[in-house]
Design a protein that fits this description.
The chain is of the alpha/beta class and 266 residues long. It has a domain of 165 residues: TIM Barrel (Alpha-Beta Barrel), CATH 3.20.20. β3, α3 and β4 form a beta-alpha-beta unit. It is globular and about 55 Å long. The relative contact order is 0.11. The mean pLDDT is 97.
């Protein structure tokens, strides 16, 4: 999946480059503080108009972001109730992305560091309505702890299909959350796999594996993530790196290599 955070004026060109390189899943958010969702939509629309792909061939994921995670460029009325804010943000995303449905709609993190306040449940129930209506095909949550995820899963009428977390090797690559996801048929999306684990990327173990498979260290990390059960995100801005990252589909790691990487810093 191609992540579009922090791209600003380069968002449209980079998203188009990612689609041209072969990416077919794009992650964004209706949070102007870190994303330019409208530019993502323009890139996808241009690729469709050029005959490079159809809407059904690209997986679009965006997010609802609480007021605390936004800046002054809001996609909803800050005085409206939360359910209305979700609907307003979602309608804005449909306009930005030039589409009639969203493949995955994600709560961009709980509003509290612990537990799930009532405000999060109001948002989730509104997201469930969007999923039932078919305009949000799947719903999920990001930046979530194991306890929060377990609580959400226990009481949600529509269970989360995705969890998107920053993934640190120092915590066993978010081992406990990944295990919960695997046990409950939730797809784990790992982001910052490279930037949060620079020492691992530069490690001799990754270097040896890269030499064996003929790929880049980044591709090794992404291949490891896939074989460990993750859907990895990359936000590469270099065309060569985009191709290198997708090269993770050209080889496989041995079971021993996966275990070694799992244990490298965790």
């Amino acid at each position: 999946m191609y992540g579009t955070a922090w791209k600003e004026e380069r968002t449209e060109a980079l998203t188009r480059a990612a689609l041209g390189a072969g990416f077919r899943a794009i992650d964004t958010a209706n949070q102007r503080r870190h994303y330019v969702e409208a530019s993502v939509g323009n890139a996808v629309r241009a690729a469709i108009a050029a005959g490079e792909l159809t809407r059904g061939e690209v997986f679009l994921q965006t997010k609802f972001t609480h007021l605390g995670g936004q800046d002054h460029r809001l996609p909803y009325d800050p005085k409206a109730d939360l359910a209305t804010q979700v609907r307003q943000s979602f309608e804005s995303s449909l306009e930005h992305l030039h589409t009639t449905y969203i493949d995955s709609y994600v709560l961009h993190g709980p509003s509290s560091r612990s537990g799930l306040p009532a405000s999060d449940w109001v948002v989730w129930r509104a997201m469930e309505e969007l999923q039932r209506a078919g305009t949000a095909r799947l719903i999920g949550v990001s930046n979530v702890s194991l306890a929060q995820l377990a609580g959400l899963h226990a009481d949600a009428a529509v269970k989360p299909a995705f969890v998107q977390n920053r993934c640190f090797a120092s915590t066993g690559w978010d081992r406990d959350v990944r295990a919960f996801c695997a046990a409950h048929d939730i797809t784990y999306q790992g982001f910052s796999l490279l930037t949060a684990n620079a020492d691992v990327v530069r490690s001799s173990l990754v270097g040896r594996i890269a030499a064996r498979v003929g790929g880049s260290p980044a591709a090794v990390i992404f291949r490891f993530a896939i074989q460990a059960g993750m859907l990895p995100l990359t936000g590469a801005t270099n065309p060569e790196h985009l191709r290198d990252d997708l090269a993770c589909f050209d080889f496989e790691l041995s079971a021993g290599e996966v275990i070694s990487l799992e244990q490298l810093a965790g």
